[in-house]
Amino acid sequence: MFCxxxxxxxxxxxxxxxxxxxKDPNVAKMQDVLIFLLKGLGYYATKLIEDGQxxxxxxxxxxxxxxxxxxxNVNFAPERFVEYIKKTNYYKKDxxxxxxxxxxxxxxxxxxxxxxxxxxxIPNMKNLGVMDDEDLDMDIRSLRELLIYGIxxxxxxFHHAYVLGKYDAEIANFMFKALSSTLDRDLTxxxxxxxNMELGKTNFKCMxxxxxxxxxxxxxxxxxxxxxxxxxxxxxxVSGHDLNDLGDLLEQTEGKGINIYTHGEMLPCNAYxxxxxxxxxxxxxxxxxxxQQKEFDNLPGxxxxxxxxxxxxxxxxxxxxxxxxxxxxxxxxxxxxxxxxKDFTPVIEKALKLEGFTADExxxxxxxxxxxxxxxxxxxxxxxxxxxxxxxxxxxxxxxxGARPGRNYYTEFAEKTPKDTIILTLACGKYRFNKLxxxxxxxxxxxxxxxxxxxxxxxxxxxLALSEAFECDVNDLPLSYIITWYEQKAVVVLLTMLYLGLKxxxxxxxLPAFITPNIxxxxxxxxxxxxxxxxxxxxxxxxx
Length: 544
Ligand code: FS2
Ligand code: SF4
Prior knowledge:
Layout: H1 25-50, H2 57-69, H3 78-98, H4 116-120, H5 138-162, H6 169-181, H7 189-218, E1 224-227, E2 235-239, H8 243-253, E3 259-262, H9 273-276, E4 281-284, H10 292-296, E5 302-305, H11 315-318, E6 321-324, E7 333-335, E8 337-338, E9 341-342, H12 345-353, E10 365-368, H13 372-376, H14 379-387, E11 393-399, H15 408-416, E12 421-426, E13 440-441, E14 444-445, E15 447-451, H16 456-469, E16 479-484, H17 488-499, E17 505-508, H18 517-527, E18 530-531, H19 535-543
Parallel strand pairs: 2-3, 2-5, 3-4, 5-6, 6-7, 11-12, 11-16, 12-15, 16-17, 17-18
Antiparallel strand pairs: 1-10, 8-9, 13-14
Helix pairs in contact: 1-2, 1-3, 1-6, 2-3, 2-5, 2-6, 5-6, 5-7, 5-17, 6-7, 7-17
The structure holds FE-S-O hybrid cluster and iron/sulfur cluster.
Residues 3-6, 8-9, 15, 19-21, 23, 72 line the site of iron/sulfur cluster.
């Protein structure tokens, strides 16, 4: 196996024997086969689109589900990948019959065997694994993988949007085109660079679509004092990013005496009126994803994982862990989607059988729920506070959390920000500092939690609105981006930021292994993308 798609890749180079995330070589092989098949599927779909045909939504959704399933910490169940591979073969054969083409690139027409054993014995071939075509220029490979990882990230956002009823064929069509392009051996560095920028643009549209899906279904997040301590009673902890699943679970648990806690990236759900109207959505449990094994150990409640980041479950809680949607782990009960509906009865029954928390903890709450609507409805107050010198600078400190020790940078950075500055935060990286009491400026807490990683859209809207209010370019605002990455959603959000021309982004804790020195130099020259150093040094550089 070879995989270097995430930040914790072995030795900062690539996982070759076993994923640090515990993805084993068999699952890695199946994911490679699936992506390889999808590249050809993308080729035939693109041919048909060029001929004026419409690719059915069902296929756009299926392709999205497949790329999302290969994202870090999502699906570790080999059987699920066998099913994806079989279904991809089926769709691909259909497209091949319909598309009239005689110049398909090598590998486009590949059809995989359909049993686990046969799939695992497929020999290496060009374009199958990341490193299989040894003669490929390393800079081309770097940009090709950047494109594929970005597609995986956008696939996650697109999936969350369409399960809430929002679909856009242009996003699916770009996904087909991008997958297809990776089979084209004539593409240059410039071609790939442009495709990555087009991905950034398409992802902006996708995040906008997801924002519309979330706010359309559950209203605009509103500032909320969210409980972060435990309450007595049976409970279910809901992790991942899927608002649709949480909404369904809240409906199915109403009046059953079960408390629902969000976990990880579900935290921002506590601010949506359409979700917080359920009084048993009680607050948030625990910290970021990498703490789950410790926090779930012997947990006396049920756990539902609706998307990434899933870690190898310990025996002490495997029997009370459930997966839904895209997520999978061998021998962990999966709640299937049947005719667009999920029946969470097994999760509910498990929660009722377990003891639950036996006592109330002393209550603690933190402020959250500062998405674009909440912040921009106070735009005048913010603009005046800047003009009066009460707010000197904004920092967007956001992105993924992870296990590496270097991530303390983000805690220290937040602690050291001067008192006349505001921190906007989003995604699970916020857990590094979201419980710190950094005080407030006027009506605003100094830490404004904008939401999940996809709410980077919300943060960008805030930045664009401020630039309008100050009548200046967005890069001339007193705003700096301190970004922390781990998986492929952060990759695509970064591409969107670069596409929008945002400059002076500080990226950490380490730079992606798949970015070669030459490509990094292009990003530095074009966008002034910088690697984090120390909080003191970076703060000094930013604030002068
Ligand atoms: Fe955090 Fe994991 Fe949100 Fe990432 S819960 S690192 O996949 O998407 O952010
Ligand atoms: Fe390694 Fe990350 Fe790939 Fe897992 S997803 S195998 S940790 S690079």
